[in-house]
Design a protein that fits this description.
By secondary structure, the protein is α/β, with parallel strands linked by helices. Helices cover about 35% and strands about 10% of the residues. The strands form 2 sheets. Strands 1, 4, 5, 6, 7, 8, 9, 10, 11 and 12 form a 10-stranded mixed β-sheet that branches. Strands 2-3 form a two-stranded antiparallel sheet. It is elongated and about 130 Å long.
Length: about 425
């Protein structure tokens, strides 16, 4: 006997509720018949109480049945979520791509040596591919479409092992109950490959959307993975992002210590893969460009930035300048759906990716989607004190010296006589 990861009622419980309405009706009829046979009168109060009880049971059953894991319920919830996010579809044409944004920065006087990838905040969706909240949420490629319409160019994916019999721990996208490694609380789950295909299709191949050539970041957040889960993720990446990978010198995190300084426009049409594991024992390692490093804090909680003392801020800012970092609550945490954290503390340190739930249009998301942040462009340049740039100094001029010539030859010392070997 094996445990299932599906959050569903046992068949016996389902069968109990499946005919509750008809059973209640039959029971009521039986009671009335018995009363009639006995010749006793049935008080009006008792009849009313019975009717109220039956109505309450029917309402309860109707509500619960709409949360059973069925195709119709998944479609119904997806339809509602899509309608709630349709305004992103209507507003997408008002957005601009990275190159156009860089041109506006250049026109405003920002020097090009400030265009290193690390100098930009990136619009990021948390729990990518999932319509939050976690409880009875739905995993769907349409959630990716909505996120791209909203301007997301970074996608945080919660990846679990599929515990379905015969699935061999394949990687899947879902949400599992906090403290559990198997009890799924989303209505469904989908293979990682389906979500990755949606990201490529909507984020790169869809030419009807501004910014499809912009750099695209994936953060693969593995949750209790098996080696087969990691190998399956490598296969899913090979089937979907292969044409958009960085050059091989960035494979297996080999170029991580210089990727941050690459001009961001050199990353256009590329997918950068980040992960919370380097997967050294798996084929997946070859696909990871950015992974954990000793002494470098890359995955920040929503509260970490608030606890930084003024004395430690410069050191953290320096490390963040040279390493990609992110803030994204785990998808099963209430914070992930609530968006109850602000950008201010994290971005004051220069943290690049702050994952948000695009469906919860509270004050924090409104600040996130402000035109000065991500409302028009998927990228926003950091304030000058947080930027990393290499100052290139001009070569020093040699003074004119009669011994070194003059005019056009000034600064060119006379070539010394050649060394003569002793006779």
């Amino acid at each position: 006997m094996s445990l299932s990861d599906k959050a569903e009622l046992a068949p016996e419980v389902k069968s109990f509720f499946s005919g509750i309405g008809e059973k209640a009706k039959q029971a009521a009829s039986h009671v009335v018949e018995k009363i009639a046979e006995s010749g006793q009168s049935f008080s009006m109060v008792g009849l009313v109480a019975l009717v109220v009880l039956l109505v309450a049971l029917l309402i309860w059953y109707a509500r619960k049945s709409r949360l059973f894991e069925t195709a119709s319920n998944v479609k119904r919830i997806t339809r509602k979520d899509i309608m709630d996010l349709v305004h992103y579809e209507h507003d997408k044409e008002k957005r601009i791509g990275l190159i156009a944004y860089l041109q506006t920065l250049k026109n405003s006087g920002v020097p090009e040596n400030h265009f290193a990838a690390t100098n930009f905040y990136v619009s990021t969706v948390n729990a990518a591919g999932i319509f939050l909240p976690a409880e009875d949420g739905v995993v769907s490629p349409l959630a990716i479409k909505a996120a791209v319409n909203a301007g997301a160019r970074a996608f945080i994916l919660d990846i679990w092992r599929d515990l379905t019999p015969g699935a061999r721990f394949a990687p899947c996208v879902q949400i599992v109950e906090a403290g559990s490694n198997w009890r799924r609380i989303t209505l469904n789950s989908l293979p990682l490959s389906i979500i990755l295909k949606a990201i490529v299709q909507e984020g790169i191949l869809n030419i009807r959307r501004p910014g499809q050539n912009d750099p695209l970041f994936l953060y693969l957040r593995f949750r209790n993975p098996h080696k087969l889960t990691l190998d399956g993720a490598a296969k899913a990446l090979q089937q979907t992002i292969e044409p958009y990978r960085l050059e091989p010198s960035y494979n297996n995190c080999r170029g991580q210590n210089r990727l941050f300084a690459a001009p961001i426009f050199n990353l256009c049409d590329k997918i950068i893969v980040m992960s919370n594991t380097r997967a050294k024992e798996s084929d997946l390692s070859d696909y990871i460009n950015v992974g954990p490093m000793d002494g470098i804090k890359m995955d920040w909680t929503t509260r970490d930035a608030n606890g930084i003392s003024e004395n430690m801020r410069p050191e953290h800012i320096r490390k963040i300048q040279q390493n990609f970092t992110w803030v994204a609550p785990k998808s099963e945490e209430p914070t992930a759906a609530a968006n109850d954290y602000t950008l201010t503390s994290a971005q004051a340190l220069g943290i690049h990716f702050v994952g948000m739930n695009i469906a919860n249009n509270n004050d924090n998301l409104k600040a996130y989607m402000d035109p000065k942040m991500f409302g028009k462009s998927s990228f926003a340049i950091k304030p000058v004190p947080l930027r990393y740039y290499i100052e290139v100094l001009p070569p020093p001029k040699y003074p004119e010296d009669p011994k070194w010539g003059s005019g056009k030859t000034a600064g060119s010392p006379t070539e010394p006589p050649s060394i003569q070997l002793p006779q």
